[in-house]
């Protein structure tokens, strides 16, 4: 690792590279702050009051009018009269972000009040996810200065780490579905009970999984690559990341809860604090800080920095749970056997889907390994850039799921049905413009993360494929999360697993390993699979079988 981390494949001096990266990091932190500033300003004004609950009423109360004036719409799940809801929404102030964009009279057939509601719910989550992607790309930039082999090692190790923690991430959707339904049913005093059950499951399952993965890492990594430099870098990086597996599950459970109770600002603020720890600590450990006696650790330093930041996030979430969710039963109302059963029923299909998706991504790296190390590095960067384009859609999708779940809780099936369609239209329009950037400037984007020109050249066309189809991905992610938000996790699992394991992976293996086709074929097949998922998820929502799902 020291040899690989000391010099890049192109022979750049490590100390010089470290100085340059400190300068890049300072500029990057400023850019992150500017990007997120508008989101924080737009959402933080309403974060203090959204956890309070009121009794149902047929007309706006003084408390509700004051909440509307501050932009807080968390009381809406307790309002049964739809005319009162419309009145209160129409009195809410226009979003500063929407005003800046000139959106004051609705968009794409979606009324202004619904656009305002979606953005109120989604902007904090989107801000957090955008910052997460910026941080992932920052890690890629830092590791990229160590050489192409190091980039490939981080890609392989990150996929294996995701595979280990994927089962725990599925708990988040169960928490959101159950907590949102209880808020809609006017039972806020027990809204955090599903979260209590989820934290218990994350500890009981997460610790053994982390230990098993840590011990198995030296034997698993060599099965995915034969490059000795990649193996030497990937094993310690993976072991460092695995130490945070239980914390990842806990953090995802909290994310589902804060979305359900309409407090996504807490998620965003916590994530930003994690990023500050991650980028500063990773940068220090990767390149060293001689003034403080910190040696340069190379790739493994990035893994340690990320793991520590995840645990910092867990500590912050627990603190906010005790201060903001105590009245909802956090750490005070024990989950019943029925709560655990319902959560498991919701979480297991999603957890299996995530696990098989992560395993499928590991298989993808194995298939790409037949092409070479440069292709593995290129795919790692493509996946990170794809997530940068797609994960903001996840914020909109989570908003759709939470809004539909609360509407079902108060018995408004028509409203629950319409939310994902409205959100999907807004998301697709937003991502179409973003995707054009990837289509127009692929070389410049790839040059930020890859120093080898051959690797850049082979990734240009796949990145353009991603940019062209990102609007379809927006539909897929929105409908998938809407279905999860109303508890239809089994059919989501069937679509996700079926398209990946019975279509994409077999065709990719035959094309690459047997027919000798290149990365353009592989990535084109991948984006087509995502478009097929979008069509199938939209069809499932249109069929409406999710309306009969009961969550106790």
Structure description:
The chain is mainly α and 552 residues long. It is 77% helix and 0% strand. The protein has 20 helices and no strands. α8 runs parallel beside α11 and α11 runs antiparallel to α12. The N and C termini lie far apart (52 Å). The N terminus is likely disordered.
Distance between the termini: 52 Å
* Whole-angstrom Rg: 23 Å
Strand content: under 5%
Structural class: mainly alpha
Provide a quick synopsis of the model.
With 552 residues, the protein is mostly helical.
Question: What is the element layout, followed by pairings?
Answer:
Layout: H1 2-6, H2 14-44, H3 62-69, H4 82-91, H5 96-101, H6 112-144, H7 148-169, H8 171-184, H9 193-220, H10 228-242, H11 245-260, H12 264-287, H13 299-324, H14 337-369, H15 373-409, H16 413-440, H17 442-447, H18 453-485, H19 489-514, H20 519-543
Helix pairs in contact: 2-6, 2-12, 6-12, 6-15, 7-9, 7-10, 7-11, 7-14, 7-15, 8-9, 8-11, 8-14, 8-15, 9-10, 9-11, 10-13, 11-12, 11-13, 12-13, 14-19, 15-16, 15-18, 16-18, 18-20, 19-20
């Amino acid at each position: 690792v020291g040899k690989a981390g000391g010099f890049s494949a192109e022979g750049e001096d490590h100390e010089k590279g470290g100085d340059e990266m400190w300068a890049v990091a300072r500029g990057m932190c400023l850019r992150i702050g500017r990007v997120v500033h508008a989101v924080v300003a737009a959402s933080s004004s309403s974060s203090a009051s959204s956890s309070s609950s009121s009794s149902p009423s047929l007309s706006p109360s003084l408390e509700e009018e004051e909440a509307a004036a501050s932009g807080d719409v968390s009381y809406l799940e307790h309002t049964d009269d739809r005319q009162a809801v419309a009145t209160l929404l129409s009195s809410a102030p226009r979003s500063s972000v929407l005003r800046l964009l000139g959106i004051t009279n609705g968009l794409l057939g979606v009324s202004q009040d619904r656009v305002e509601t979606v953005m109120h719910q989604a902007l904090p989550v989107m801000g957090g996810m955008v910052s997460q992607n910026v941080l992932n790309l920052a890690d890629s930039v830092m590791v990229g200065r160590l050489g192409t082999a190091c980039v490939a090692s981080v890609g392989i190790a990150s996929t294996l780490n995701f595979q280990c923690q994927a089962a725990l991430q599925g708990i988040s959707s169960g928490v959101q579905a159950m907590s949102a339904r209880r808020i809609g049913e006017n039972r806020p005093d027990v809204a955090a009970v599903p979260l209590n059950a989820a934290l218990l499951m994350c500890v009981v399952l997460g610790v053994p999984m982390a230990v098993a993965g840590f011990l198995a890492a030296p034997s698993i990594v060599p099965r995915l690559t034969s490059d000795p430099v990649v193996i030497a870098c990937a094993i310690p990086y993976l072991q460092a990341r695995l130490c945070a597996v239980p914390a990842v599950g806990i953090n995802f459970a909290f994310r589902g809860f804060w979305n359900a109770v309409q407090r996504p600002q807490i998620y965003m603020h916590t994530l930003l604090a994690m990023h500050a720890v991650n980028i500063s600590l990773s940068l220090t450990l990767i390149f060293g800080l001689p003034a403080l006696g910190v040696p340069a650790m190379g790739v493994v330093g990035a893994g340690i920095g990320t793991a520590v930041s995840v645990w910092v996030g867990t500590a912050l979430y627990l603190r906010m749970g005790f201060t903001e969710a105590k009245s909802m039963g956090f750490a005070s109302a024990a989950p019943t056997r029925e709560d655990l059963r319902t959560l498991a029923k919701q979480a297991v299909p999603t957890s299996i889907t995530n696990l098989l998706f992560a395993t499928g991504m590991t298989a993808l790296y194995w298939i790409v390994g037949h092409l070479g190390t440069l292709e593995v590095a290129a795919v790692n960067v493509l996946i990170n850039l794809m997530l940068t384009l797609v994960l903001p859609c996840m914020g909109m999708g989570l908003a759709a799921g939470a809004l539909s779940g609360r509407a079902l809780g108060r018995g408004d099936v028509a409203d629950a049905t319409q939310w994902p369609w409205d959100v999907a239209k807004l998301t697709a329009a937003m991502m179409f413009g973003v995707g054009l950037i990837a289509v127009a400037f692929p070389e410049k984007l790839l040059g930020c993360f890859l120093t080898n020109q051959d690797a850049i050249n082979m990734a240009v066309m796949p990145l353009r494929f991603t940019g062209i189809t990102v609007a379809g991905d927006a539909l897929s992610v929105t409908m998938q999360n809407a279905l999860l938000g109303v508890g239809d996790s089994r059919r989501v699992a069937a679509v996700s697993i079926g398209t990946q394991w019975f279509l994409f992976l077999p065709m990719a293996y035959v094309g690459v390993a047997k027919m000798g086709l290149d990365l353009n074929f592989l990535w084109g097949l991948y984006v087509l699979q995502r478009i097929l998922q979008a069509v199938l998820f939209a069809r499932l929502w249109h069929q409406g079988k999710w309306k009969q799902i009961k969550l106790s």
